[in-house]
Amino acid sequence: MKRPDSETGPDAGAAERRAAHSAAAPLFELSDVDVDYGAVRALSGVSLAIRPGECVALVGANGSGKSTLLRLLHCLIQPTRGQAHCVARRRQAMLFQQPYMLRTSALNNVSLGLWLRGMRWRAARTRAGLALRQAGMADLAARNAKTLSGGQQQRLAMVRAWALAPEVLLLDEPTASLDPHAKREVEQMMSDFTQAGAGGAPAMIFSSHNLGQVKRLARRVVYLERGSIVADLPVDDFFYGPLPEAASLFVKGERIP
Amino acid sequence: MNTLSESVLTALQLIAGADPVLLSIVARSLAVSACACLLACSVGMVAGSWLAVARFRGRGIVLTLLNTSLALPSVVVGLVVYLLLSHSGPLGFLGWLFSFQAMVLAQALLVCPVVTALVRQTVEDAERHHGEQLRSLRARTLVRSLLLVWDERFTLLTIVITGFGRAISEVGAVMVVGGNIEGYTRVMTTAIALETSKGDLPLALALGLLLLLVVLLLNVLAALVRRWRERRDAGLPGLFDHAGALP
Predict the structure, then answer these.
(1) What is the pTM assigned to this prediction?
(2) CB proximity B130 to A under 8 Å
(3) Which residues in chain B have their CB less than 8 angstroms from residue A146's CB?
(4) Which residues 161-220 of A have a C-beta within 8 angstroms of B?
(5) How far is CA A53 from the centre of its chain?
(6) Over the stretch B106-118, which tens digit does the pLDDT of each residue have?
(7) Closest Cα partner for B165 from B20, B18, B25, B40?
(8) Confidence band, pLDDT 50/70/90 cuts, at residue B242
(9) From residue B25, how far is each of B30, B44, B53, B175 by CA, in Å?
(10) Which residue of A has its CA nearest to B241?
(11) What is the pLDDT of residues A168-200, one digit of tens each?
(12) Which residue numbers in chain A have pLDDT < 70?
């Protein structure tokens, strides 16, 4: 699947470009951020910087603050305290565990995302059609999106996000409720997404309880515990290097997610 | 044969014979309630969906007032509309008192809070479940509320039918502002009240039976809509038939 802004084939120089991006200004910069839901502190003293082209996995037990962090990065919530700076606000997309599809065709659902970003409806439909074809989902274009299976809906949500050609894709446990086959398909789409297009490598930040998936897709892992970042490491260091005790227990599977 | 069975028999004869007086009353009732329902739904759908999605200071008070207005007695609505439309009232210049328009206005005021409250509840439930995803697509408040209304359209159709049922079955407001003038503002409910008080039970009963029939037809319509929706959800194409072909 080629990115919509891509005019070349699969990019062989993606790794080099990523290296160049690593020196670039961060897309997100959080400094000492707290987020409260009433009396409950969901995030506490979080500082984080994410640069273009990074593929970051957020891991941690249920209630550790992964979803809150993603929502904060996508500007769906505001920090209670601290600074949250987001450069790519208008060029980012987010996927949820259970995607919401309107009661209309798959094509219209993809078009809607583009139309809401200011594209004319006719142009949006053309681009949505192209995106569905490239994702191998043209046969589902006319189907009522509500009638699609969970895996198909998640792939459709992926196409809807991907059609926007975002600089950043945020995914909140995108494969948590899918069967192994659908999981593989969505993972493949996630992997394709991180291939650089003409505009440079997009960043992807996803939360997951599936450590195998984290190993396969991520290059950096952020481990959260009770709303705080306990470890923020390259993926190999996270799985094979020394870790704080809580994170180490989590990786060894002694802490059930 | 007792009075009841005689009345029922005569009522059935009136219906079967398509009595012109009976039919004109039924037609007027349907026209008044349909116009009132259209007016109330136009306002109630937009107001209800916006209230469901928007967050503003004083929203709680607005919702409390809205929910209170659900229990508004129809005669009180009739009285208010009467005062508004009377010669000395602020809308007296319209000359609508004891007219078709006055009855439409009264019924619309009666139905509007019902539609607004039910739409608000339905859309707010949808917003709670899906609003965040629409916000993530950068849908602003008004667009979000319209998208949710669109997505909940089958549920909202049931609300429209409920509103129509409320309008056609009320008697107090139309009696006060319409005056129950024969051949002009007499509708089913006011006619039933009048004929019963006069002792003309067959006509009252015939009207009552027709009123029940209308309510029954509304329920059948609601059931058909539900069935149609289930069929579409079972795998038929979406609402835009032209959406089938890729551009």
Answers:
(1) 0.78
(2) yes
(3) 233
(4) none
(5) 12
(6) 999 999 999 999 9
(7) B40
(8) very low
(9) 9, 27, 41, 14
(10) A142
(11) 999 999 998 888 888 899 999 898 888 755 556
(12) 1-23, 88-90, 196-200, 254-257
DSSP state of B72: -
Structure token digits, residue A7:
């005019």
Cα distances (Å, whole numbers) of residue A140 to A145, A153, B14, B240:
8, 10, 56, 14
How many CA atoms lie less than 13 Å away from A68 in the CB half-sphere? 26
Cβ contact B235–A129 (<8 Å): no
pLDDT at B204: 85
Distance between CA atoms of residues B223 and B201, nearest Å = 32
Strands (E), B3-57: none
Judged on CB neighbours under 10 Å (0-12, 13-18, 19+), A155 is buried
Q: What is the mean pLDDT of residues B61-67?
A: 94
| Lookup result for tokens 């799985």 | A239
- B238, pLDDT greater than 60: no
| Chain segment B78-135, per-residue pLDDT in tens | 999 999 999 999 999 999 999 999 999 999 999 999 999 999 999 999 999 999 999 9
Alpha-carbon dihedral B112, B76, B70, B93, rounded to 10 degrees: 20
Q: In this predicted structure, what is the pLDDT of residue A196?
A: 59
For residue A76, which of B240, B132, B61 has the smallest C-alpha distance?
B132
Q: Are A175 and A210 in contact (CB under 8 A)?
A: yes
Nearest to A170 by CA among A96, A80, A115: A96
Name which of A76, A104, A142 is nearest B132 (Cβ-Cβ).
Answer: A76
**Do residues A135 and A106 lie in contact, with contact meaning Cβ atoms separated by under 8 Å?**
no
Task: Sort A190 into a burial class: Cβ within 10 Å, 0-12 / 13-18 / 19+.
Answer: buried
Interface test with A, best of B137, B147, B233 (most A CBs within 10 A): B137
| Domains of chain B from N-terminus onward | 20-229 (1.10.3720.10)
| Ramachandran assignment for B235, one of left (phi > 0), alpha (psi -120 to 50 degrees), beta (any other) | left
**How far is it, in rounded angstroms, from Cα B98 to Cα A229?**
72
Contact with chain A for residue B133, Cβ under 8 A:
yes
pLDDT of res. B213: 87
Pairing state between β A168-172 and A203-207: parallel
- Position A26 scores a pLDDT of 85
For each of the domains in chain A, give its residue range(s) and CATH number, in order of start: 14-99+168-251 (3.40.50.300)
3 state DSSP class of B123:
helix
Q: B55 — contact with chain A (CB < 8 Å)?
A: no
Say if B242 is an interface residue toward chain A (CB within 8 Å): no
